[in-house]
Amino acid sequence: MQQYFLNQKCPELGATFSLEKADSHHLFTVMRAQAAEKVQVVFSDQTLTLAEVNGEQETLTLLKILSRTVELPLGVTIAVGLPKSDKLEFITQKATELGAQAILAYPAQWSVTKLDAKKAAKKQERLEKIAKGAAEQSKRLMIPETEILSNLKALTDQFDRYDQVLIAYEESAKTGETAAFVDRLSQLKSGQNLLVIFGPEGGLSPEEIEKFTQLGAVKIGLGPRIMRAETAPLYVLSAISFYTELLG
User: Fold this and answer.
1) CATH number, domain containing residue 35
2) 3-state SS of the chain?
3) Same domain, 98 and 170
4) Tens-digit pLDDT profile for residues 88-112
5) Quick one: 101 and 34 in the same domain?
């Protein structure tokens, strides 16, 4: 069943409404929806609904409110140092499928990729489309926020928004550190917010690690194997899902 997001509050049952222009085109022109066909629509308040296609004027009628628990118990934001080529697009798509609340990208000291304002705006638009499509495909109740930050300070200024800030640090993995990740997860309660920071292909510089830890972030290891820049965020999200949803 197709699912769409609509940036407005959920109307009353029986109400007739229209999707946003691009989604309406997809449903009625690309998918050739017929009268009485059912689709799911998620409204801005994360209300999941079942709606029926009307035969005229490309509108929908709200049939009922659905209940489904799909979001992670923790609000997880991942922040990645700008990676090369299309890796950020890949991370955004997969992180959305795995339940991330937000995906941030920042120009790390050792990032090879450099974006001027024009390129950043274009990539930002691309990431938003990818996140929306992935959220629809994975039947999320929200579209993750995506943002390309202009500098490191734009990232550290956000630390106080989170109940815990973690740094996925490869040197911790190399030294065999395995306890910090589980220990910090065990301290968080459902509904709290977590930020996990990852470096680009070259890793995080000592200066960045020092800055993060001075502001209260905690270094964690992710096991004995060193992962690529695009793999580590997905590992962390998978581990959080296992710990909070399957073990919990």
Assistant:
1) 2.40.240.20
2) CCEEEECCCCCCCCCEECCCHHHHHHHHHHCCCCCCCEEEEEECCCCEEEEEECCCCCCEEEEEEECCCCCCCCEEEEEEECCCCCHHHHHHHHHHHCCCCEEEEECCCCCCCCCCHHHHHHHHHHHHHHHHHHHHHCCCCCCCEEEECCCHHHHHCCHHHCCEEEEECHHHHHCCCCCHHHHHHHHCCCCCEEEEEECCCCCCCHHHHHHHHHCCCEEECCCCCCCCCCCHHHHHHHHHHHHHHHCC
3) yes
4) 999 999 999 999 999 999 999 999 9
5) no
pLDDT tens sequence across 12-68: 999 999 999 999 999 999 999 999 999 999 999 999 999 999 977 899 999 999 998
Q: pLDDT grade, residue 248 (50/70/90)? A: low
Domain that holds residue 238: 75-246
Same domain, 155 and 61: no
pTM of structure:
0.92
